[in-house]
Amino acid sequence: EKGQSLKGKHFIVTSGGTREPIDPVRYISNASSGKQGTAIAQSLLNRGAKVSFIYGASDVPPPAGVDAIAIGSAQDMYDAVHRALPADGAIFCAAVADWRPKQAGAEKIKKKHDGTTPSIEMVLNPDILKSVAELDQTKRPALVVGFAAETENLVEHARAKRQRKGCDWLLANDVSPETGTFGGDQNKITFFASDQPEDWPKMSKSGVAEKLADAISKHFGDA
Ligand code: PMT
């Protein structure tokens, strides 16, 4: 029965966009709406799972029934994810900023009146997905699922990303502006459970979530 197939299982789901402060009133972020991550959390809940939903900036509220943890920056998301462990599975749908401004000013950066502009030095953020995929067997969730947001050479880039990050499954989506993947209601996934890509048809984000939750239920032996 769908309603109970993941009962007793704990999942971490990341969703939305991170915000990397420049100063107290400015940040660097991205166009993630949180719709895909929210739909995945809902589909896992529908199967009886307990869900720790760790989310950044989003256009939609977290689903009722999750343990909802709101975060700001990538470092906040990293800390929240590691605090939410242990888990049976972890799904990394958030659009995490790869870099952050090296120094977030304590005061608002003043506009100069001589025509000069500030330059922002960036440093690398921790890779949350990779840090979880690399945990030793006693701490690593049994199933670690990543996403790949690509604008070109999707299959090659996604295959390499799955290897590099050490995740079990990877859902690659084309996020070129004309696709409307960021922020829209539909998604087109190329799914990797191995090096072999499996093309899913274009469908609603809740359709993608259901298909993923079905595969997860099957993986845990209860479908
Ligand atoms: O939110 P929506 O508007 O519904 O759009 C959904 C989506 C396009 C944001 C989503 O489907 C998606 O592709 N999410 C991943 C976005 C992303 O950051 O992709 P990436 O290729 O840069 O990262 C690869 C993976 O590593 C992702 O699972 C990401 O969550 C994770 N990551 C990346 C960087 C980082 N520092 N830590 C991470 O955990």
UniProtKB/TrEMBL annotation:
Q: Where is this region: Phosphopantothenate--cysteine ligase?
A: 11-223
What would be one Gene Ontology cellular-component term for the protein?
Answer: phosphopantothenoylcysteine decarboxylase complex
Query: Which residues does the UniProt record annotate as the domain DNA/pantothenate metabolism flavoprotein C-terminal?
Result: 6-218
MF (Gene Ontology): FMN binding; metal ion binding; phosphopantothenate--cysteine ligase activity; phosphopantothenoylcysteine decarboxylase activity
Q: Which reaction does it catalyse?
A: N-[(R)-4-phosphopantothenoyl]-L-cysteine + H(+) = (R)-4'-phosphopantetheine + CO2; (R)-4'-phosphopantothenate + L-cysteine + CTP = N-[(R)-4-phosphopantothenoyl]-L-cysteine + CMP + diphosphate + H(+)
Question: What EC number(s) are associated with this protein in UniProt?
Answer: 4.1.1.36, 6.3.2.5
Protein name as annotated: Coenzyme A biosynthesis bifunctional protein CoaBC
Q: Which organism is it from?
A: Maritalea myrionectae
